[in-house]
Amino acid sequence: MWTLSRIAVYPIKSLDPVYLEQTEILPGGALSGDRQFALFDQADNVINAKKYPAIHRIRSQFDIANQTVTLSSTETSPEPLRFHLIEERTELENWLSVYFHQQVTLKENSESGFPDDLEAPGPTIISTQTYEELARWFPEITVDELRLRFRGNLEIAGDSPFCEDRLYSATDSQVLFQIGPITLAGSNPCKRCVVPSRHPITGAKDSDFMKTFIRKRKETFPAWAPIELFQNMYRLAVNTRLTRLPDKPSNIIRAGDLIQILP
């Protein structure tokens, strides 16, 4: 039996995570508070780590209850500064504009957030066993650092590396599963970009990371996994979508909830 062991949300897209003991699922399928805010450049394009490596060097601490964020970076002022995400948005945007050397706008979507996969905007899922296997591939990278590189939402205590790949199918039939009271459908293995190859604090890129990952993924690919969905092997974790939302307060998931694949 699998259990939910860790919940991570990223209140501002591409910045640091907040780890929670419980959270609610929004009607659109996202976790409450996850990617609720995103940064946009002067051309109104999203500022993310894929396009802006400098974002790795911003440290952020969130107080979700009080809607504040504390930012620091040695490239601007080493002294941390706290901003209210609503009441001090102009001051926050000014700090970010100085950092990125252009006008930055902070936008909010409290209903669905700003997911990467619009077809599967639910939480991404990965197992602790998978992170531990990756740490064997990359002995110089700890499991905690891998969490920051791959930025999954829900971490499960499973039974083997890549066991989360059982949560989707190459056929038209969806794989449905429950986490606590919530029913989700697995969509596809998550496509990866350049971000996991960078150090999550400094932004320094490891040019061999992707090649090593693809080689080891091929070598260890489970016989039962749907290889048809792997156009290349640079994929990790599971994208999901919500299929059924129970009435409040039953739309809350908690660390320790059981995960059950439905028939």
UniProtKB/TrEMBL annotation:
Superkingdom, natural source: Bacteria
InterPro entries, per the entry: MoCF_Sase_C, MOCOS_middle, Pyrv_Knase-like_insert_dom_sf
Single GO term (MF): catalytic activity
Pfam families linked: MOSC, MOSC_N
Residues of the MOSC domain: 96-262
SUPFAM superfamilies recorded: MOSC N-terminal domain-like, PK beta-barrel domain-like
Transmembrane portions of the chain: none
PROSITE patterns from the UniProt entry: MOSC
Protein name (record): MOSC domain-containing protein
Organism phylogeny: Bacteria, Pseudomonadati, Planctomycetota, Planctomycetia, Planctomycetales
